Amino acid sequence: MAFDGVTIANIVKELNDTLLGGRIYKIAQPETDELLLTIKVNGGQKRLFISAGASLPLIYLTENNKPSPLTAPSFCMLLRKHLQNARITGIVQPGLERIVQIEMEHLNELGDLCSKKLVVEIMGKHSNIIFVNDENMIIDSIKHISGMVSSVREVLPGRPYFIPDTQDKQNPLAADREAFIRTIHGKTMPVYKALYGTYTGISPLLSQEICFRAGLDGDYSTASLGENHMGRLSDAFFSVMDAVKNGSFQPNIVYEGSAPAEFAALTLTMYSDSERREFSSVSVLLEQYYAQKNAVTRIRQKSVDLRKIVQTALERNIKKYDLQLRQMKDTEKRDKYKVYGELLNTYGYNAEPGARSLTALNYYTDEEITIPLDPALTPSENAKKYFEKYNKLKRTYEALSELTLEVKAEIEHLESVSASLDIALAEEDLVQIKEELIESGYIRRKGGAKKAKITSRPFHYISSDGYHIYVGKNNYQNEELTFRFASGNDWWFHAKNMPGSHVIVKSGGAELPDRTFEEAARLAAYYSKAREQDKADIDYTEKKNVKKPNGAKPGFVIYHTNYSMTIDSDISGLQLSED
Question: d(Cα 206, Cα 268) in Å, to the nearest integer?
Fold first, then answer.
């Protein structure tokens, strides 16, 4: 992906075409690092989404609204105070920087006309949204950066605003051919690295595209380029820059199979063999490309505490299990001590007083055996000592036999909860997982707090042949689907010997087509720990063959009659129902 200066240039053009002259109608802050501006323009209103999230900084127009907190954050309240009904007078990108400056005019409390700027910096983990006055002084920002965090630039109220250093990179829109050829040729590194290392706003992806258009391998060293090569490279470079200056953008997404692989604001000709979809709006492209990724990133951030609880408990139980297995191994000596005791009772009279060992015939194996003795004890006292060791190890073995089963079951349960956290797509999914952890004793319910309302529902897919397929998102949903929702002749699928979802196919008493079996198996593979594997083994059987042992953890089942298949986890062709 390439959220570079060229993509920003495309966005700025679209915003100027759409929002210039519009008035700020609503200002919301759905998340700590997000803004959603509603802007009245001729013919209606538009929404501008801005995110300064470290993992997914974004800016684009959207038709979707987002719920806001009941109490607006202080940064949001400040913007409302100054910018309510402000008119957008300009939207600017300095050079080809990953910066958007939204210039606005508004009336202050005395009715005087004032100018302000909202500066959006799309710079990875350094992204920010900064509110600046007409003297370029920072009024406030969505993220405060003190001198303790950055020695280069403080972003705090009252500090001057300036564009951060771009590591001595040049503005590609102001480049000339002679300087370009001289600069690039003077660098001893791969051509594509020389391009994005010299000029601001150019991503490695765009650098490779420029090299491809020039008919060059981007990995070739600049030192190996002749005059003809440099001529072709400069032609390709300035052709791209001319397209940016003229606003001749062609937003497009390149797909690998069914998954989006890359996007750019200019046509990616180097992917000529791949499926490529073009968009009339860069905002629509960005929203579609990032929608799923943004949702996954957000839910992972919100599930951090739950993941930490599960991981800590899992590590503790694994250590306990390993220790128990070592202790179990030590108890393997118990039968030897029992035999020693029995043989001493039988042959002890042959032992010499003060002897340190006794060699006797082991009547269990018909082989001679040497029994160590404590010379200070009589043979019968030695026998008693061995029987005491035997009984102690026997008791330990019996206790550990139960404990190891319990701890192993707990490990499997925690691994299944971890898999549920990977599957979760929305906050309501996390609510049910948290409730399971509370009921399992890993989280304490706050005093007086009621059981959370559960609104999460299983995934519902429609197979290519029209059969309804349901996928549990967590252990409670797995149990509900298998033992309360499914009928005896419905089909049940699960990844073999690993955490994953229960998948139910409603057969309606009919015989399922092979394609439906395969699609259900792919869902079972996708919603399991086998998702990243090329192939997964899937067990499937009629629901009537699936049983739940007494006292088992939620979602834990056994079955003895089943079929198996090995299949991939590609579910791109399956239709997810909206109900």
Answer: 8
